[in-house]
Give the backbone structure.
Amino acid sequence: MSSQGTAPRVRLNRDRVLQAAVTLADGIGIAPLSMRRLAQELDVVPMALYKHVANKDELLDGMIDVIITEIAPPATGLGWKDVVRGRILSARSVLQRHQWARQVLETRTNKTPGVLAYMDSFIGMFLDGGFSVDLTHHVMHAIGSRMWGFTQELFDEPVNHNDAGAADADDAARQAMFQEMARRYPHVLTIAMASAHDPAGVVGQGCDDQFEFEFALDLLLDGIDRLHAQGWTSVRAQRPATT
Amino acid sequence: MSSQGTAPRVRLNRDRVLQAAVTLADGIGIAPLSMRRLAQELDVVPMALYKHVANKDELLDGMIDVIITEIAPPATGLGWKDVVRGRILSARSVLQRHQWARQVLETRTNKTPGVLAYMDSFIGMFLDGGFSVDLTHHVMHAIGSRMWGFTQELFDEPVNHNDAGAADADDAARQAMFQEMARRYPHVLTIAMASAHDPAGVVGQGCDDQFEFEFALDLLLDGIDRLHAQGWTSVRAQRPATT
DNA sequence: GTGGCAAGGTGTACGGCGTACACCTGCTAA
DNA sequence: TTAGCAGGTGTACGCCGTACACCTTGCCAC
C-alpha cells in the first residue's frame, strides 16, 4: 500500500520494528497492538517480524527499552533530592507521551539492559548523594514504580460518559444514579467533590494529576530526607556480620 | 467427569462461577484462566458461563469483588494511623493469598460496587480521624495502590533460575554473566548484595518483602501524620470560592 | 395432570490471536 | 558465475472470546 509500484522497499531491522511498534502503540493503545497489526503497518507479512524479534514479549521489552532512552540523564551540580525529583518528573513526562508503557511495565518482569541501566543510574543518584547502601536499598523499594513517574491512579476515568444522544431521559436516570451513589458511597462523593466542582464528574473529574503526583512524591522525598539526615539504619544492617 | 452417572448436577449460579474462578486463578494464575478452562473446571460447556456473567471483563470484576470481602473491616478504638495501617496490612495479606489480583486491579478501570464500598470505608478512616476533606483527598492519591497492600515490586523474581541439569558448564557461564553484570550495573549489584548475602541471587534474593512494605508504608504514614498535625492545606483549598 | 414458559445448559461457528515450519528471493562475497 | 544466507512469504495449528440458535428442565396456573 504505502510503498506501491517500483518503490525500493526499505529493509526491515529490529530498530525499525521497535520504533514502529512504539508509534503504533502511541496511536492505538497497547491492547489492539498485535503482531499482525504491526506487520500491516510496516507493509509486511506478520511472520516477517519474527526475523527481528523472538516473540511478542521480546517486542514489548524492546519497546520499553526504546522509550527509556527518552528519560533525561541525571542533572549535575544539584543536591540528591533535586536530582532525583527532576529525573522522576522527566520519566513521568515520557510515560505520559507513551501511555501504554505503564501497563507494560507493570505486567512485565523487567530485566532488559535498558531497564537495568536506568535502575543502575537511578541507584547511583542516592549513592552519589552520600546515602548508605543500606538506606538506598530500602529507599529504592519505597519509591517503587514511582521511579518511572507513575502511581496507580485510583480516580482515573471521568465516569462512563454516555457518548451522546438520549439526553433528557438519561438525565433523570443519571440523577437517580447520583442519588444512589450519594447514599451508598458518601465519602467517595465528598472527596470527589473536593476537587471537582462539577458533581457530574462523580470521581476525580477536575483533579490536577501533576499536582497530586508531586504532592505524593515530595511526601516521600521529605521522609527520605529526614531518615538520611538522622543517619537511619535498618536493624538488619546493624548486625556487624552474619557469622 | 466429576459428576458422572446419575449425580444430580448442581445448578450453576453467579456466585459459584466467581468462586470457582477465584480458586482456579489461585491455582494456575490469571494468564491461563480462560472461559473455556473455567467452564471445564465447572463441568460445563463454555457458553454456559455467559448465562451468569456478561463477559470475561465482568468475570474479572466479580472476582475482585469476591476477594475484597476478605479484607478485614477497620478496627475500632485506635488512632487513625493504626486503623489505616492495620487495614492496609490486612489487604496485603489478602492480595498475597490471591497473587493474580494485583495484576487485575492494575489493569481494570475498577468501579464495581465492592471497590467503591472499600474506597468509601477507606476514606472514612481519615475523615473519622479528623482529617479535612482537602487533605484526605490528596492523601488518597498519595496512598494510591498501597491501599490494596501492594507496591510495584521492582526486585521481584530471583533471576532466571535455569531449572536444573547442565550444572558445571553453566557454572562458568554464570560466572561470566555475573562479571558482566558487575561491570555494567555496579550499583544494582551493590544494592542487591546489601540484602542477599548469596550473590547468585543477583537481585533481591533475600529481601524481606514484608519489611520493605512496612518501611515504605510507615514513611508515608509518618509524612501524612506530620501534614495533618500542622494543619496542612492545599493552595487550591485556600481559595475561598470559585467565583 | 398438563400446557406453557422462563431459566439455564448445549453445539456450532466466526474472526482474531501468537507463532511453528517449510519455502522462496535477492544481495553479497568469492 | 555461483554459493550462501539473511530476510520476506504462505500456510496452518491450536488457542482465545463470544454471537446465535437450539434444546432441556423444572415450576406454575389451570
